Amino acid sequence: MALLTVGSEFPQFSKTAVVSLEKGKEFETLTNTFNNDNGQWTVMFWWPKDFTFVCPTEIAEFNAAYEEFRDRDTTLIGASTDSEFVHAAWRRDHDDLRGLKFPMLADTSKSLAEDLGILEANEKIAYRATFIVDPQNIVRWVSVYDLSVGRNVDEVIRVLDALQTDELCPCNWQKGEETLVV
């Protein structure tokens, strides 16, 4: 399937996610219908595999910026095609992942990754993809990296800020700077 791109409606989903390490409260079912009701944006970022090397650096960096996303009325969701049990084990095992403030979505059927067009052909794992979705469930930004290269969380926040202005933002625009007047 082709990469889901800007202007497309983000697919509906219902998936299990790891939301805690507290016994009996580890898992919840996550859907994307909640954002339509409360005016939230969504940033969903995907990584290829748990228990790898580049992935935890990105996940930890998104977690460090969690309040930045919250301040922007944005729900942050991490995802991969690993199971919720693997996610939970990785969180318990990795020092940088124990205190995650956002859910780790488990797309074990790979159906959402396939609908998004980010499923790598050979291993059937997700590419490093990031989607910014507006409160109307429309994709406003997509970024896809090769499996070996980590993304820049500051750039995700910069683009989110620009999109939320609903104005024309020049190259390298940063929050607080003037937008373009036509």
From TrEMBL:
Keywords: Antioxidant, Oxidoreductase, Peroxidase, Redox-active center. SUPFAM superfamilies: Thioredoxin-like (SSF52833). CDD domains: PRX_Typ2cys. The active site is at residue 55. GO terms for biological process: cell redox homeostasis; cellular response to stress; hydrogen peroxide catabolic process; response to oxidative stress. Residues 4-165 form the Thioredoxin domain. One of its GO terms (cellular component) is cytosol. Pfam families: AhpC-TSA (PF00578). The keyword Metal-binding does not apply. Its EC number is 1.11.1.26. The keyword Oxidoreductase applies. It catalyses: a hydroperoxide + NADH + H(+) = an alcohol + NAD(+) + H2O. InterPro entries: AhpC/TSA, Peroxiredoxin, Peroxiredoxin_AhpC-typ, Thioredoxin-like_sf, Thioredoxin_domain. One of its GO terms (molecular function) is thioredoxin peroxidase activity. Transmembrane segments: none annotated. It comes from the Bacteria. Homodimer; disulfide-linked, upon oxidation. 5 homodimers assemble to form a ring-like decamer. This is Alkyl hydroperoxide reductase C.
